[in-house]
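Support request, please re-run this one:
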Amino acid sequence: VQLQAYGGGLVQAGGSLRLSCAASGGSFSGYIMGWFRQSPEKEREFVATIRWSPGATHYADSVKGRFTIFRDEAENTMYLQMNSLKPEDTAVYYCGADPTGLSHAYTYWGQGTLVTVSS
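Re-run finished. Output below.
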């Protein structure tokens, strides 16, 4: 399984970005896939997860109401729509995949994409 994350960039506070994670090399039914982020000051933290089928989602409190995770099953791509961005959202964002479906064994990771939110 390979994951490729892209879509990061520089945006002003209050702006929006959409991250994408293209998945290949497997069938993802039963997987949980998620977005995580890491800044220099913090350990990697959970942002949002989605069960590939049937699409149940879960969000960190810090992004609820601002970020939306969704996937396109036909394209094997997961997305993170980020609105109302804040400077504290600045981080490298990683997509991960857990084939167990239990959200505790993220075996596969994308390479990360940098999001920088300026104040």
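The radius of gyration is 13 Å. The longest strand covers residues 17-24.
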